[in-house]
Amino acid sequence: MTGNHQSARPGDGGDFRDVHPFAPGDRLRRIDWRATARRARLADELFVRRTSALADATVVLVLDSRDDVGENVEDWTGHTADGEGVTSLDLAREAAASLATAYAAAGDRVGVQDLASQVRVLQPGGGTRHRDRVVRAVTLSRPAGSRFARLRAPVVPAGALVYVFSTFLDDEAPRMATLWRAGGHRVIAVDVLPAPRTGGLQPHERVAFRLVALEREERMRNLQASGVELLRWQEPAGGAGERAAALRTLARAGRGPR
Questions:
Q1: Please, which residues bridge with residue 188 across strands?
Q2: Residue 31 DSSP one-character state
Q3: Mind listing the pLDDT tens digit for each residue in 86-140?
């Protein structure tokens, strides 16, 4: 019930919330005599100034380790990257571990889900030991091999902030993100697709890649339309600082835990 983020619940420590009729449990020092003079209709009616409570955040990191694609588009026919360079899971592990470390250092609770497995689950927790378990689980994530479709989104705690790390090359991760957003969670879709290299593609392969890219762009637009926020983790060439700026923007847009 305490932390560094402003909550939607009334309590002590946060910013001004509202002016409310005096109720059992309210402190006398919170009586707002000016508001009482304006609003009171009865002689014994009092009004108090209420503030928002401070609470820790609950963060769920959702890895989509069903695929691991690299920069070379020629290798995308399989589910794992074959060539040199950074892969999507490399970026997902880096992003998830960085965010887990940052949130844990702020005293927040962090958990892990994996869309490729029903057993790779760490419930949200706090502290240094739990942070190390989260980072280890993220580091050991690998493509599962067999793919399956979930009938419903994995259960996350009420009011949790959900990060989904995926390439968004199919509909599964966007569908889960949309379901969490419809359930009232703040959802941030972290795009971990590496910058594609298409130099060695044949003409028909270029057409196929263009179709895949257009479908992916449509998924990203639909996510934004449903209220999911987007963050691209890999910075473009010559775009140093863009990711940090995007993270600051997302932080300012956040309203804290519910």
A1: 163, 229
A2: B
A3: 899 999 999 999 999 998 888 888 999 988 877 778 899 888 999 999 999 999 8
Radius of gyration of the chain (CA): 23
Query: How far apart (Å, rounded) are the C-alpha atoms in residues 128 and 109?
Result: 11
Which of 89, 126, 83, 120 has its CA nearest to residue 104?
126
User: Cα(38)–Cα(187) distance, rounded to whole angstroms?
Assistant: 42
**CA 12 to CA 54: how far, in whole Å?**
7
Burial code (b: 16+ CB inside 10 Å, e: under 16) for 108-144 equals: bbbbbbbbbeeebebebebeeebbebbbebbeebebb
Closest CA to 185 of 34, 49, 57: 57
Amino acid letter, residue 75: D
The overall longest dimension of the chain from CA atoms, in Å, is 85
Round to whole Å and give the CA distance between 5 and 20. 22
Q: Are 92 and 39 in contact (CB under 8 A)?
A: no
CA distance 5 to 98: 19
**pLDDT recorded at residue 257:** 43
Cα dihedral across residues 167, 172, 173, 174: positive or negative: positive
pLDDT, one tens digit per residue, over 171-227 is: 999 999 999 999 989 999 999 999 888 887 888 889 998 999 999 999 999 999 999
pTM for the predicted model, two decimal places: 0.77
For 100-114, how does the pLDDT look when each residue is reduced to its tens digit (9 = 90+)?
999 888 888 899 998
**Dihedral of CA 7/9/14/18: which sign?**
positive
DSSP 53: E
